[in-house]
Amino acid sequence: MSAKNTIESVYELVLKRNPGENEFHQAVKEVLDSLGPVLEENPQYVDACILERIVEPERALMFRVPWLDDKGKVQVNRGFRIEFNSALGPYKGGLRFHPSVYIGIIKFLGFEQIFKNSLTGLMMGGGKGGSDFDPKGKSDNEVMRFCQSFMTELCRHIGPDTDVPAGDIGVGGREIGFMFGQYKRIRNEFTGVLTGKGLNWGGSLVRTEATGYGLVYIVDEYLKEQGQSFDGKTVVVSGSGNVAIYATEKVQQLGGKVVAMSDSNGFIYDAQGIKLDTVKQLKEVERKRIKEYASIHKSAKYTEGCGGIWNVKCDIALPSATQNELDLEGAKALVKNSCICVAEGANMPTTPDAADYLIENKVAFLPGKAANAGGVAVSGLEMAQNSQRYAWTFERADAELKNIMVNIYKSISEASEKYGAKGNYIIGANIAGFVKVADSMLAQGVV
Ligand code: NDP
């Protein structure tokens, strides 16, 4: 079969086997659409049905998570873990707790994770998990009871050499702590089974900052290649969670000015530059809404609805909230305002038509697979430190992170050029991530 026919038939198969899972379809299509030239050059991938195998999770788990709320009433959520591909190492990828979670979201994230982890150059397969549980508005005790129930089932399937989950939307240090405690209690072992742990009990320095810092490091590498830097640049960051906060911190350290941030209700614009201490206090400590920022700082204006953030004039945009948050209308506004670079802090935050529009209009577009790989990279470094029973300094972990991001930029840039699409980093990231996984699957036989 020709490369084109293979791609089409695999995509048809994905649609048929995974009905209604739109986010998963979108993620698969984006990768498959990049792979034509690679398959032409490597017919052995077609012969060994690498594509047919890579779109099918090795294992998909779905389970009931019953727990008692503070009123003593029974609540029931649904838990997931998709162990997608272990060609490069133990399954690795975060857990997302958000009411929108269903199997299609977990599959899309798990699929992306395969290629992202490959790009880091570390030994990690791809996986993802989570639940439709909403931590918002729950007490600490409710979150703890939920996490304990979730881990009571999940602990049968994971382990430091098998599958190592981390955080994602709705899963931060608090949730990782509760889940780690329950795993340790049931299995009677203290191992690096989760990453994003507290620093006293096996966590790595820089893990909290890693995704945001890594995002800014890769953009900085791109800017350097253009003879530019963050110094004096105006930046818009969507979201105000883990990724957004630490991306903002690093932009500010490098001399850039972040003027807007958001949450799922709306966005703030502060022409004088966002005061990050206030955002950290509101979001990390008090778990409040971003709206509050405008009542603390009179220089800021709050606008209801998060989509409007792309109308804010900027040189660089870092979508760092959630999937499909930057649509064609947003992309048009960015181009109109002469934005030069969009880098995805979140997973798949840009709709396909918006990404095409940005690329057509010569905006450098760094896809999440590459741009937000810093988080999982430092998770990989946390696993390495846990195996050594040793903790690195902040400087060492940060230097390793930076090095990994610089290498990712080089590899996606080179791959885009090698396959005739210079500067198209979507194609570059998909190809560079895919080839290593495909070669490893070939070497490991039909499994
Ligand atoms: P957090 O839960 O810390 O923050 C998420 C942020 O996004 C919050 O500001 C949240 O606002 C906002 N948000 C969530 N859902 C929506 C929505 N439907 N519409 C608009 N805004 C929304 O998550 P992270 O910062 O960890 O993750 C953000 C993104 O980055 C996700 O796509 C995640 O998969 C990706 N990512 C995270 C990594 C990590 O290390 N944490 C690693 C790689 C990727 P609100 O509080 O109102 O819900």
What does this structure look like?
It contains 18 helices and twelve strands. The chain folds into three domains: 81 residues, Glutamate Dehydrogenase, chain A, domain 3 (Glutamate Dehydrogenase, Chain A, domain 3, Orthogonal Bundle), CATH 1.10.285; 131 residues, Leucine Dehydrogenase, chain A, domain 1 (Rossmann fold, 3-Layer(aba) Sandwich), CATH 3.40.50; 153 residues, Rossmann fold. With 447 residues, it is an alpha/beta fold. Helix 6 crosses helix 18. The two termini are 22 Å apart. The structure holds NADPH dihydro-nicotinamide-adenine-dinucleotide phosphate.
Distance between the termini: 22 Å
Which descriptor suits the 3D outline?
A: globular
- Spatial arrangement of strands, main beta sheet: 9-8-7-6-10-11-12
Helix fraction by DSSP (H/I, runs of at least 4):
40-55%
Give a short account of the largest sheet: 7 strands, mixed
Order of helices and strands: HHHHHEEEHEHEHHEHEEHHEEHEHEHHHH
**Relevant CATH superfamily of the largest domain:** NAD(P)-binding Rossmann-like Domain
Note the beta-strand portion.
15-25%
Helix count, DSSP H or I runs of 4 or more residues? 18
The distinct bound ligands, ions and cofactors come out as: NADPH dihydro-nicotinamide-adenine-dinucleotide phosphate
